[in-house]
Amino acid sequence: MSSQISSPDLSFPNPERAGEIEQLTPLVRRVLAANPSFMTGPGTNTYVVGTDPVLILDPGPDREDHLEAVTRAVDGREVKAIMLTHDHGDHSLGCDMFRAHFEVPIYSKRDTAGKRPADRPFPNGAVMVVGGARLRGVHTPGHAAEHLCFLLEEEHALFTGDHVMAGSTVVIAPPNGNMADYLGSLRRLIKMDLSHLYPGHGGVLPDPSCEMEGIIAHREARESSVLSALQAGDTKIADIVARVYADVQEFLHPVARYTVLAHLQKLEEEGRVRSVPDPDTAAEPPRVVQVGNTELPLREPPEMKASFSFI
Ligand SMILES: [Zn+2]
């Protein structure tokens, strides 16, 4: 097998240059979608991987201009497959448009074969071979239960989707998100001794172990702050967020509630915290969360209204 290892381009994607094609290494091209926001940073990265044939990794949002830009990045070469890291809309809403245009199946961890006959499940450890590149699925539950990262074997680099982002903190939103799984997935990735990371948002990360150890340390610090808030007498998630996230802009607090719930559920699984459901809201239907002017497809589970305390 020929060696294609080279230093990737570390420049941060610039939202003003969405739609431009950036050749990061001989095997990897990046196209930034024009969907910047406080949740997506500069926007969603779509990657075109391989020489010929190629594969497309994460279609991104359903935008015609993005499909056109990715088609330019493909540059007439054969597209063998479309790979999907996870089901969140900023990565997956373009699936229908991309599938119809390139006429290839979408491969993802979730078995969508029942809904869409053209698509295929891609289990942990499965390998997709394209021109000059082998891509291996690495199941990384945590941000989403079905989340897949993809190891580019030739570079020993990992496409991380939303498991690791550059420049922003990953939200862990139960029930599909799980904090213990998230930290466990990070620890397994650190052991892989990767060379660099291609995140779903932001630029290439050149020091994977340092990056992921930093995320674990940040989560451990937040967890001990959550415990301190309980010690100080807070029992409701809104109060815990107000105390623990005093350093974060207030309009982001509705999102932080999910990560705090994820921390509390982890602590409950460990037998360190107990929760008492709120009887008045147990039957309330889940709501879509409003953050500033943006409606987020996060649904508030009834557990969000529970009371929490030390055991
Ligand atoms: Zn995302």
Task: Provide a descriptive summary of the structure in words.
- The chain has 311 residues and is an alpha/beta fold.
- The chain folds into two domains: 15-206, Metallo-beta-lactamase, Chain A (4-Layer Sandwich), CATH 3.60.15.10; 217-310, Winged helix-like DNA-binding domain superfamily/Winged helix DNA-binding domain (Arc Repressor Mutant, subunit A, Orthogonal Bundle), CATH 1.10.10.10.
- It contains seven helices and 16 strands.
- The chain has helices at 64-74, 89-92, 95-102, 179-191, 208-231, 237-244, 253-269; strands at 21-25, 28-32, 45-49, 54-57, 79-83, 106-108, 120-121, 127-130, 133-139, 148-152, 157-161, 197-199, 273-276, 288-291, 294-299, 307-310.
- The strands form four sheets. The protein has a seven-stranded mixed sheet, covered by helices on one side.
- Strand 3 and strand 4 form a beta hairpin.
- The longest helix is centred in the C-terminal third of the chain and has 24 residues, at 208-231.
- The chain starts with 20 loop residues before the first strand and ends with a strand.
- Zinc ion is lined by residues 40, 44, 88, 90-91, 162, 200-201.
List keywords for this structure.
single chain; 311 residues; alpha/beta; Metallo-beta-lactamase, Chain A; Arc Repressor Mutant, subunit A; 2 domains; seven-stranded mixed sheet; five-stranded mixed sheet; 7 helices; 16 strands; binds zinc ion
